[in-house]
Design a protein that fits this description.
The complex is a heterodimer.
Chain A: H1 2-33, H2 48-58, H3 64-78, H4 91-97, H5 101-129, H6 140-159, H7 164-207, H8 210-224, H9 227-231, H10 250-287, H11 290-297, H12 302-340, H13 345-355, H14 358-386
Helix pairs in contact in A: 1-14, 4-14, 5-10, 5-12, 6-7, 7-10, 8-10, 8-12, 10-12, 12-14, 13-14
Chain B: H1 2-24, E1 33-34, E2 50-52, H2 70-79, E3 84-85, E4 91-92, E5 95-100, E6 106-111, H3 125-136, E7 156-161, E8 164-168, H4 174-183, H5 189-192, E9 227-233, E10 237-242, E11 248-249, E12 261-265, H6 270-278, E13 284-285, H7 292-297, E14 303-311, E15 316-321, H8 328-334, H9 337-345, H10 349-356, E16 361-363, H11 390-398, E17 402-403, E18 412-413, E19 425-431, H12 435-450, E20 454-460, H13 462-470, E21 479-484, H14 490-497, H15 518-530, H16 535-552, E22 555-557, E23 559-568, E24 572-573, E25 591-592
Parallel strand pairs in B: 1-11, 2-12, 19-20, 19-21
Antiparallel strand pairs in B: 3-4, 5-6, 6-8, 7-8, 9-10, 10-12, 13-23, 14-23, 15-21, 15-22, 16-23, 17-18, 24-25
Helix pairs in contact in B: 9-11, 14-15, 15-16
Classes of the chains: A mainly alpha, B alpha+beta.
Amino acid sequence: MLNLMLIFIARRLFYTLFILVILSLIAFWVMQLQPGDFITKHALQLSQETMAQLRQRYGLDQSGWVQYAKWIGGILTRGDFGMSFETQQPVFDHLFVNGNRFGWTVLLTGLTFLFSWLLALPLGIYLATSAYRGTGRWRWRTLIRAVARTARRFAHVFEQQPDARSCRARWQQRIQDTLALLGQLLGAGLRWLFVLLVNGLGIVGLSLPNFLTALLILWLLVAVFQVGANFGLGISGLFDVKYRTAPWNWDKFVNFLWHLWPVLLVVGLANIAQLIRYTRANLLDVLGEPFIQTARAKGLGERVVVYKHAVRNALNPLISLLGFWIPMMFEGLLIAAFVFQLPVVEFAYWRALATEDQYVVMTGLLFFGLVLTLGNLLSDVLLALANPKIRYE
Amino acid sequence: MKRLFCLSFGLLFALALSFAAFAQDGSLIPNPKVLSEDLFPDGIGTRGGSVVIDNVDNPRTFNPIIQFESSSDAVNAQLHAALLEGGFGSADALAEAFEVSDDGLSITLILREGLLFSDGEPLTVEDVLFTFNDVVFNPDVVSRKTLWLINDQLPTVSTQDERTVVVTTSVPAPLVILINLTVQEILPKHKLAQFVHALNPDVPAGTFNEAWNIGTAPEEIVGAGPFRLSDFVADQQVVLARNPFYWKIDPEGTQLPYLDQLILPVVSDDNVRLLRFINEETDIFGPAPEDLPVLQQRSADGIRLIVGTQAGTSGDNFFTFNQDAANPNLRQLFRDVRFRQAMSRALDRQTIIDIFRNGLAEARFGPGMGANFWFGVQDDLNFPRQDFNLDEAQTLLDALDLTDSDGDGIREFGDSYPNPGEPVEFELIVPEGSRVLISEADFWSQDLETLGIRANLNPTSFNTLVGRISGSRPAEYEAVRISIGGGGDPNFSADVYASRGPLHIYKFSDASGEGVPEYQQQLDELFARQAVTDGDERFQIVAEIQRLLAENVPLIWIANGVGLLSFREDRLGNFAGVSLDATVIASEILYRRDSAQ
C-alpha cells in the first residue's frame, strides 16, 4: 500500500506543476486586461519621458508574451521570480523573506487552524450527542419527568406510616431528592446556556464580516477596557512597539500571546462556526446508521460507540474538506492582517494587486495555488490513512 | 631638540587620535547652525525619549531620489539634509552661506566646515558634485530632473575650492534653483558611488535605481539629517535613532535633535490609527474631520487638537473638463469659457463643505490656498469669483445654444454644434476609493441635472483614472474630479497651468502651439517670467496669473481642507506639525516633556 501511496503522491505533484503553469497563464492575461500598468499611477508625478524610461527598465514596453516567457523562463532556469517594481527587490525576498513574512504566515495559519479544529470538533461532537441535540431548546419533557419523579417520591414518602427512625430517613431522602433535582435543573440550565452561547457565537461568526469583528474587538479593548491607560497594553501588530525589535524573552512571549488571541478569534470564528455545524450534522447522520444500533445492541458502552465508531466515520467528510480549509485559512488571514497589521504574505500580495506589481502578484498566485493543491493532496492522503477502504490507484 | 620634536609630534598625534575617537562617538562640527529661539514655541527642550507616530504603509525604498510615495518620504525626510532650507531657499543649512550673482546666472554656496554624515564620514563638495552630476542629472537614474530644467537645460554644478559649490544656469532663474536646493538631499558618495555605472563600470547602467532598497542593512543608509535608520521590520515599524553628528544646536548649545528615537509603526487602517492614538500608543495623529468629535471628548486626557484657521497646502481639488474630448459637441462646449463659468456657478461649495467636510474647509475659486503666501493673495484682491448662483448659471447656459427641445429636462445641442440634437451629457470619472469625492460629485451632478445638464458619475479605480487623464495624448476622459498636490510655490503649478506642463490635463493639445486660446498664451508667458523674477514684480505676475485663471476657469476649484492635527500635549514640546503622510516637521526641536536629560 505504501508503494501505491507514493506513486499516487508523485503523480499528483507532477499534475500540480501543470496546474500551476496554467494558473499563471490565466492570471497573467487577466492582469494584462487591466488598463494601465504599474507606472500609470505615477503619471501625475512623473514626466512622460521618465515614465517611458521606467517602462523600458521594467520591461513593460514589451509584449505580454515576451514578458511572460522571460518570467517563467527565469523561474525554471534560475529560480528567479522576477523583480518587485515597488521595492526593487527580488520578488521572493519581497514576498517571503522581508519581515519573515513566510514564517509568520505559516505560524499564524497553523495556530488558527489548530485553534479552530481543536475547539470546533469537541463542540460539534458535544452538540450532536448532548440530550438537547444541539438545538439549544430546552427539552421540556425531560425536565417535567424529573420534577414528576421527585414529586412522586415525596408523595410516596408521605403515604407511609411514620416512626422516628424512618422519619429521619425519609427527610434525608427528600433532601437528597431535592438536591438531585436542583442539580439536574442547574446542569440543564448550564447546558442550555452553553449551547446557546455556542450557537450564538456560530451565528455571529458566520454573519459578521471578519473586518467588522476585528474592529469591534479593538474598540472594546480601547474604549471599554482601556487597555492602554489601565494596563499599558497595545493593540495591532504582533507586539507592542517596545518589543518589536527586542530579543525574545518571557515578557515578549507574553506580549505576543496578548496580540495573538484577537487574531485567532477573528480568523477562527467563522471557521469554528462552520466546522461545528459540519461535525454535528455528520455525526448525527452517522449516529442514525444501523451499524451504530448494532454496536449498542452488542452491549458496547456509549463512549466506545460514539468515539470509536461514530466519530471516526463522521470525520471522513471533514478530512476531505481539509483541502479547501487550508487555503481558506490563508484567505481569512488577509482581513485580519489589514486590521491588525500582520506581517504576512497575504498582505504583501494584496498590496501588490493594488499597485499592479505584476511579478509579485504572479508569484503570490503560484504560492496560493500550490497551497491549495498541496492541501487537497494532504486531505486525500489523510483520508486514505483514516479509512482503510479507500485505495488510490 | 630631537627629543622635543618627538614629544611634540607624539602630543599632536595623541590629540588627533582623541579627536577622531571623540568624533566617532558623535560630536559637534566646528561651525554648527544655531537655531533661533523664535523657532522653539515651548522653549528649550531636554534630550531623551522617543516619539511614536503611525505611518500609513511600509517605506518602499530608502533611496530619496527614486521615492514616489508618501510612506517613504515620512522616513527619508528625517535621514537627509539639503544645502538650503526654509521658504524660497532663504535659510542656510548644509551650506552656511550662499550668494546669487548679479546677472542671476549662478549661485555660489559655501559648505559648512567639518560636516559629517551619520556614519562619521566627512560630507564634502565631492558629495555635492556626486549628488547632482552623477545621480540627479544622470540620464540612467529615474530622478525628477525635469524640476531642474531651465530653458530646457540642466544647470551646471561645479566646485571652486574644497568648500565652494557653484550652480550655473543658461538663463537667470535663481528662485527656481534656490527652491530646488531646499529639497535636494545631499547623498554620500562613499556609499552610493558603487551603484553608478560611470563610476563603477562593473555594474550595469541604471543600477542606482535599485540602491538602498528596503532590504539594505540600516548601517548602509547614511545621511546628514537629524536621524539615522536604526531598524526596519517590514509591516511592523521603522526605528530612527538620533544622528550623533548632526550639525544643528539650540540657542544654549545643546546638539540637536532632542529625541533619542523616532518610531514609525506601520498601520494601514485609518480606524486603527485613531484607536491606537486614543489607547495612548502613539503621540501624534493626523485626524480626518469625522474623527474630531471623538478627539474633542478626550481633550482632558492630554490630547490637544489643532484645527487650522486657514486651508493648508493640500493641493488643488477640482473638477475639470477635457477640452480635447473625443466627442466634437463636448469638445466645442468645454472650450467655451461661458460653459465653464456656468459649471462653477452650479457648484454649491459651502454646502459641500458643511455636509461632507464638517465645515472644516475653505471654498476655492482659483489655485490658492489661504495659508500660502503667493496664492493667498486672491483673498485680498478683487478677483472674479464664479460663486454659486443657479440663476446665473442658467443664463450662461441659455446663451450657449443649449435648449431642452423635447421636454425631458435635459438640454440638447443646438444647430451651432457639429451634431445637433444630442443630449448634453458627459461622463464624470471619480476615484472609486473615496467616499467624500464620490459624494461631492454626486451632489454637484444633482444641481447640474436641474440646469438640464446630465453628468454620468463613474467611480473608477485610481490607476485607471490616472491613465485616462494623463496616460495618453489626447487624454481619454470627458470630465474628472481629482486632486493634485502642490508645493505651494507658483513655479510648481506651471506643471498644470502652462501649455507644456505634464499635468496640463484640461487641454494637452496646447503643447502643439496650435489653437491656443489667448488667455493660455498669456499664462505661458507669465509663468515663464515669474520663474526668473523676485519680490514685488513676481507678486504682480502671480496676481495676474490668478486673475486670468479665475476669469477663464479651466478648472472648477472646490475647497481646500484646513489643517487638522492632534498630539499629546502633556508629552510633547515644540511640536511644529506633521504632514499628511506622517512626516514630522521640525523633528529636531521636538522633545518629550517627561524625558530625563
